[in-house]
What we know:
Strand order of the largest sheet: 2-1-5-4-3
Oligomer: single chain
Structural class: alpha+beta
Shape: rod-shaped
Keywords: Cell membrane, Kinase, Membrane, Phosphoprotein, Transferase, Transmembrane, Transmembrane helix
Number of strands: 17
Protein name: Histidine kinase
Subcellular location: Cell membrane
Strand content: 15-25%
Membrane topology: Multi-pass membrane protein
Number of helices: 16
GO molecular function, one term: kinase activity
Radius of gyration: 64 Å
Amino acid sequence: MIIKKNIFTKLNAVIFIFLIPILLLYGLSNQVSVQVVEGLLQKEKSNQLEFFRKQLDAIALSLAMNAITLTRDTTVLGMERAMLSGPQQQLIQIESNVQEKLTLQSSANSWNNDITLYFPSVQRTLSTSFRQIPYDERKLDKSVRVPGWSYRPDPERPDMSSFVYYAGGPINENGKLDQSLVVAEMAFYESNVTSLLDQLKTGSKGDPFMVDRQNHLSYNRSSDKQTTSAVVDALFQKTLEEKGDFVSEIGKKTYLVNYVYSQALGYYVVDYTPLEQILFPITKIRNFFYGFIILLLAVGVMASFLLYKHVQAPLHALTGVLKRFQNGDFSVRLHKWFHSEFDFVVVRFNDMAGQIQHLIENVYEEKNRSRMATLKQLQAQINPHFLYNCLNFIISSASLGRNESVIAMAYNLSDYYRYITRLDDPNTCLRDELKLVKNYLEIHTLRLQRIQYEIKVPEEMMDIQMPRLLIQPIVENAIVHGLEPKMGGGTLVISGEVIGEYIRITIEDSGVGLSSDRQQQLTEQLNQPMDETIGYGLWNIHQRLKYWYGESSGLEITSSAAQSGLCVTIYWKEGYDHDSIASG
C-alpha cells in the first residue's frame, strides 16, 4: 500500500517524530527516578532495621547479663545456703534482701520484665512476678537445656506471653541440674517488642514484624496479619543472609521487603513497604505527563485535520480539476465552496477556465475552417497541363479517325474530372479512389502505349474511408518522373495491406528511380514549409495525411526492390476520428 505524502500525513509524521523522543526520554528519566527512589528506600529501611536490631540486641543482652549476674551474686548464693541450714529468722532477712535486689534489677530496665530465681536444692522459687511461680523440676530441666532466649506463650493471657532467658547450670552426669546451684530466669513481655515495632512503624509506610524459623510472629498493634503471613511465606522461600532485601508480588501489589537477623533473640526483623504507595507521587506525575502527551497528540492531530480540511482538501479539489483541464476537458468547473480564502481561487479559476475554453474553441474552429479551405485549395491545384495533353490526344485521334481511342479517352477523362471536381465531400472510400486511379492510368495507357499497371488491393480493404486524391498524385508523379523518362516500357504496381492498426498503400514503379541522397533530401523536405524547391504533389499528400490522421501518419519514400524504381508508401492509423476534424 502506497501512502500519499500530503500535508496531513507529513504534519502527523512530524508530530509523532517529535513526541517519540520525548516519550523515550521521559520514560528513561522516570525509570531512573524509580530506581533511585527504590535504592534510597532500601537503604533507609535497611538502616532503620539495623538500628532496631541493635536496640533490641542491646536490651536483650543487658537483661541476659543481669540474669547471669544474679546467679553469681553472693547474697543470692547465701540465700540458698540459708535455705539449706540457716535459722528461719536469718532466712527471712536474706530473702527480703534478695527480693529487694530482684525488684531493683527488674525496674532498672525500661522494658517490663520479671526475674525468677529457682533453688533446685530446696525446690523453691523467688520472683518479681505478681503471680506465684511454682517450682516445676521437669519444666525447669527442659527450659535450661535451651540456650539463649526462647519464646514462652501464655495461653491464659496472650498479652503476658514473653521471651525467656535462663542462667544457671551446668547439667550433671545424670541429666539433672546441679542441686547446689541457683537458676535465674529473665523474662520480658512480648508487649515490649510490640511497642518497639510500633515505634518503628511510626512515620513509616511499612508494616514491621518479627519472625523466627518456627514461624512464630510478633506483630505491631496495627499489623495486617494476612499480608504479613504472605510476606513470611515469600521470605522463607529465599536463601536468607544476615540482612537483605527483595521485591515480591503479593495480592496484585508489589512490596519491597527488608530484613535483618537478630543474633540475640534468633528472630528476623522484617519490614515490608508497598512500592505503589511510595512511588505514588512519581506515578501520578507520570500519568499526568502521559495524559498531557495524549491531549497534545489529540490537539496536534485535530490541528492537522483542520489544516487538511481547509488547505489540503481545497488543493486536492483544485488539483483534480486542473488535471482534467490539462487532459483537454476545458468545460470543467469547480462548484465546491470552502468558506475560506480558497473561494476566491475557485471564482478566479472558473473565470479563467471559461475564458480559456472560449479562446480555444474560437481558435480550434478557425483552425478547422482554415484547414478545410487549405484542403479544398490543394484539391483545386491539380496540374492543368494534364487536361491539355488529353484534349490534344482526342483531337489527334479524331483527325486520324481512331474513334475507339477518342471514346475511351473521353469516357475515362469525364469520370476522372467528375471525381476530382466534386469538392462538397472531402471523404471517399478506397474503392472510388482506385477507380479514379484506374481512369488516370487508362488515359496514360492510351497516350503512351507503353505503360502497364497492376492493382493488388484486397477486397476487404475497398470500403476503407480516406481523404480524396491521395493515390492519384503519387501515380502521376511515378509516370511523369519515373516511367516517361525511361526508354521502353514500364510497369506500375499498386498494392494495399493492413498491418496492425495501420493501413498501407504502396505505389511501386520500374522507372528511373532516385539516388539514396535524393530520397533522404526529399524525405526531409516533406516536413518543411512549402517552397519552390519542394515537389508539390508529395508534400501535399504528406501534409494532408498529417492534417487528417495526426503525426503518426504520412508518406514514406524508398527504392523499389521488386520494380528497380521508386516505392512510395502512404500510411495512416485505422479508426482515427478524422470525421470529427473535418466536420469542425
